[in-house]
Each structure stands twice: as C-alpha cells, then as structure tokens.
C-alpha cells in the first residue's frame, strides 16, 4: 500500500469507474458490522454515513475525520460508538423515521444522532416527547444545582445589604440550608397548627365569653394567642418580601397570596372594630367582622409551604384536569338523566318527595356519589330501580378516572425524589472533580519544586516533602497507541 504522503488508495479505480451509488461499504460500530450501499446512503447526503461513500478519494485526512479507524483491504470503517443506538439510527435510510428502543437514554441518543449527522426531525413524535421530558428534567436538575451553588457562593463585590438580604432569604425560604433555618421552619409550622386549632376551639360555646351587649365572643386568652400567631405571620411575610430577589414574582406567587389572605382578615376586622362603628351601625360591623373571621380558614393552606406531600398532591391535581373534567362531565350527564327520570317516575305517587327536576338534582348528586342522606328518596318501584341504576353508574363514573390521577401523583412524587437525588449526585461529582483538580495542581507544584531543587539548594527552604509508600507517581506521558498509518497496515 502507498504511504501517508499519497492522497489516494490503490484499491480505487483511477478513472472513477466505480460509482458511489453502486459502492458497498462496511461499517463496524462497537463490534457490530453493517453493510451499506451507496444508493441508500445518498438519500441523505449530509449524514456521516453518506460522507463515507465519497471520502476514500480524499486520502487519510478525509477518512479519519469521519471515523476512528479504517481497514482499506476490507473497506471497513470502525467507530467506537454505541451499537444499540446505531441500529436505531440506520432506520432512517430504510423507513425515513427513527424510533428509540426502550432502555436507551434519550440524551445519549440525541448525542448519537448529532454524531451521525442525522437531523432530529426524523425522530418520531413519541420519542421526541420522551426526549423533551428528559430535557426538562436536566434543566430542573441544573436549576436546583445552580440554586445550591448560588446559596453556597459569596460574591465579594456585593454590598453588605445584598449579603444580608441573601442570608435572610436563605434563612426563611431554605430550611435545609442550616440548623437555625430548620428550627424557624418548624416554628412556622407549629404557629400554623396553633392558629388553626385556636380558630376551631374558639367556636365552642363553653369556651366563649359574653360581652356587655350580651353577644358571645372568643375567650381573651384565645384572642391573645391568635394575635401572637398573626404577629408571627406578619413578621415572616414582611421579612420574606424585603429579602426577596424578585418582589413582583414574590407578590404574585400563589402561596404568598394565601399568606396575605391568612393575615389580612385580622387587620381588616381590627380596623372595622375600632373605626367602623363611627361609619356604620354596630350590627353591620359585627356581621362584617364575622364574615372576615371565617376567611381565617385560608391559613390552613400555609401548611403546603412546609409539606412536600401537599405540593405533590396539588401538582398531581393540576396535571389531572383532563381526568377531573371527564369525571365532572360523567356526573353532570348522569345527574341530569337520573333526576329527570326520578321526577317522572315519582309523579304518580301521592306523597312524592320529588317536587321538581332542579330539586331532584340534589337527590341525583348524593345518590351517584353514594352519600345517600335519605332526605329525598323514591317510593315507587320504578323510582327505586332508577335509584339503583344511578348509584351503580355513579360508582363506575367515579372509579374510572381515579387510577390516572393516582398515577400522576406517584409519577410526580417519584420524579421529585429522583431529581433531588440527581442534584445531590451532581454536586458530589463537582466536589470530586474540584478535589482532583486541586490534587493535580498541588502535584504539579511538587514536581516544579523538585525540578528546581536539582538546580539550586534553595528548595529545602521552600518546602519539605516526604514521600510515603502510598504516593502514586504520575503516569508517563508516552502514549502507546497505533498511528493512523500503522492502523492501516
């Protein structure tokens, strides 16, 4: 064979009589051999396999820019790539589309497609959805890692107020950042529970007191506990608002709106109690205060801030709007049909309880949901048969969408755990790489110092090193591998 200086191979016809369409090439990917013909590969000339057909006339540089190794005798190209992914990618030359096999990482498969220069548009829609989901997971992992790095990093150029603001934000929003932050999160959780319990206990008549006008009101002790809880919630919200990096996003967040709704009724009722009497009648003020006090139930939703389970449930319900919509549609159709049939069948009975179809809606609702209060019930035989069919259909209608909703909950919960574990693993890898980089830097420093020690006696004054038995010397920089020319021999 000719040496590297020659740009052409001897096994090729110099007159170019062998057309690329009729050329047969062998591709060896990870030990798996595949035979291709030029007419199939040239359907997509921009792909790497199609470029192999015309690379032989370009010499070694052209060949080795496309593959890892080449055997001119067998006209076989070698690639150190994933053979399983390659088997899926070559489908584009025969079927015009690509499907990922189960068990292949979508991100790795995307990288393989980029290596073989196959456009992602040939990937089937079902596989694209899987790839998009993995991309979102990687973006979420990157976001979590970045948040942790931002918390750990300290920018020396920041002002003292910015540093204090960041510390307060971590202290109140990230319980995992430190032990005091975890204590504050537990205290906040306890205040929410105490406030909810006080709201419920305050409605017990035996624990209420009578004012000068003869009206019942909450016990002063419970009122003081309520005031202390509201003071804690107010201080927590104000500090979080002040330390928030994005005030507008903070104010419009759903959980922060819940916090405002939990705090606002107390101050509005306090204002009406002291100032409203001068503007309106006392009875109207009391009614307004009672209506506002009912809004205190919003504070129970504050528990979602400290409970990942409630957050997961909320997200699962949000992702299950389609299933919930189907459930409501089934129930609505059944309620309308069975209430109309019940009203019609019960009209012949003199003591019927079905006075109208809208009144029968209530009976259909409690029947299809298998509640059955018994305030309205059929008395005729046909009416009882209609009732039996209605609650059987109700059980089926309710049971059908439950399984997808539970699957959404389990899938999201497991996904959050996987993302959390992946973020921690990514941080551990970053720490390991950082430690290896520092070790390599210190090792190169030792080598420089040892080299300087041979040139002068000042080495002993700079650093003293004692090599232990476990010291691992650097590997030799000599690389034992075949050259491109040797690989072709």
UniProtKB/TrEMBL annotation:
Annotated compartments: Cell membrane
Biased composition (Basic and acidic residues): 8-21
Residues of the Ion transport domain: 182-416
GO molecular function ontology, one term from the record: voltage-gated potassium channel activity
Range of residues in the leader sequence: none
Complex formation: Heterotetramer with KCNB1 or KCNB2.
Protein name: Voltage-gated potassium channel regulatory subunit KCNF1
Role played: Regulatory alpha-subunit of the voltage-gated potassium (Kv) channel which, when coassembled with KCNB1 or KCNB2, can modulate their expression and their gating kinetics by acting on deactivation upon repolarization and inactivation during maintained depolarization. Accelerates inactivation but has relatively little effect on deactivation. Coexpression with KCNB1 or KCNB2 markedly slows inactivation.
Coiled-coil blocks: 415-452
Record-stated family: Belongs to the potassium channel family. F (TC 1.A.1.2) subfamily. Kv5.1/KCNF1 sub-subfamily.
Keywords: Cell membrane, Coiled coil, Ion channel, Ion transport, Membrane, Potassium, Potassium channel, Potassium transport, Transmembrane, Transmembrane helix, Transport, Voltage-gated channel
UniProt record, GO biological process: action potential; protein homooligomerization
Gene3D superfamilies linked: 1.10.287.70, Potassium Channel Kv1.1, Chain A, Voltage-gated potassium channels. Chain C
Region named Disordered: 1-21
One GO CC annotation: voltage-gated potassium channel complex
Transmembrane segments: 183-204, 248-270, 324-341, 385-406
Membrane topology: Multi-pass membrane protein
Domain Potassium channel tetramerisation-type BTB: 25-126
């Amino acid at each position: 064979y000719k040496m590297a200086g020659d740009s052409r191979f001897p096994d090729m016809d110099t007159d170019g009589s062998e057309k690329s369409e009729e050329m047969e090439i062998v591709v060896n990917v990870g030990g798996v051999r595949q035979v291709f013909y030029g007419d199939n590969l040239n359907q997509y000339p921009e792909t790497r396999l199609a470029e192999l057909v015309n690379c032989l006339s370009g010499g070694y540089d052209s060949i080795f820019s496309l593959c890892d190794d080449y055997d001119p005798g067998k006209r076989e190209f070698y690639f150190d790539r994933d053979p399983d992914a390659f088997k899926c990618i070559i489908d584009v030359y025969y079927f015009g589309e690509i499907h990922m096999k189960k068990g292949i990482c979508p991100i790795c498969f995307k990288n393989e497609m980029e290596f073989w220069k196959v456009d992602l548009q040939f990937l089937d829609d079902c596989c694209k959805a899987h790839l998009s989901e993995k991309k979102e997971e990687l973006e979420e992992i990157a976001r979590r890692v970045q948040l942790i790095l931002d918390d750990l990093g300290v920018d020396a150029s920041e002002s003292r107020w910015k540093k204090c603001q960041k510390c307060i934000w971590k202290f109140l929003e990230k319980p995992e950042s430190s032990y005091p932050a975890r204590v504050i999160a537990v205290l906040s959780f306890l205040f929410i529970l105490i406030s909810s319990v006080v709201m419920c206990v305050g409605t017990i008549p035996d624990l209420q007191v009578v004012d000068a006008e003869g009206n019942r009101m909450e016990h002063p002790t419970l009122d003081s506990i309520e005031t202390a809880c509201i003071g804690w919630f107010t201080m927590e919200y104000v500090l979080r608002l002040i330390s928030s990096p994005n005030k507008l996003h903070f104010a419009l967040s759903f959980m922060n709106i819940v916090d405002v709704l939990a705090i606002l009724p107390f101050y509005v009722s306090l204002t009406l109690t002291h100032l409203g009497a001068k503007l309106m009648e006392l009875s109207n003020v009391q009614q307004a205060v009672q209506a506002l006090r009912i809004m205190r139930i919003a504070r129970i939703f504050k528990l979602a801030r400290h409970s990942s389970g409630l957050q997961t449930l909320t997200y699962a319900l949000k992702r299950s709007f389609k299933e919930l919509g189907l459930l409501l549609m089934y129930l609505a159709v059944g309620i309308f049909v069975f209430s109309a049939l019940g009203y019609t069948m019960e009209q012949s009975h003199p003591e019927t309880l079905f006075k109208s179809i809208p009144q029968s809606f209530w009976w259909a609702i409690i029947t299809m949901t298998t509640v059955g209060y018994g305030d309205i019930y059929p008395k005729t035989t046909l009416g009882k048969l209609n009732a039996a069919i209605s609650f059987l259909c109700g059980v089926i209608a309710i049971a059908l969408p439950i399984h997808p909703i539970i699957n959404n909950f389990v899938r999201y919960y497991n996904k959050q755990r996987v993302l959390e574990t992946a973020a921690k693993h990514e941080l551990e890898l970053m720490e390991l790489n950082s430690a290896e980089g520092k070790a390599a830097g210190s090792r190169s420093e030792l080598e420089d110092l040892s080299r300087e020690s041979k040139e002068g006696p000042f080495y002993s004054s700079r650093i003293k090193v004692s090599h232990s038995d476990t010291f691992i010397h650097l590997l030799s920089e000599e690389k034992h591998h075949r050259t491109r020319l040797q690989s072709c021999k």
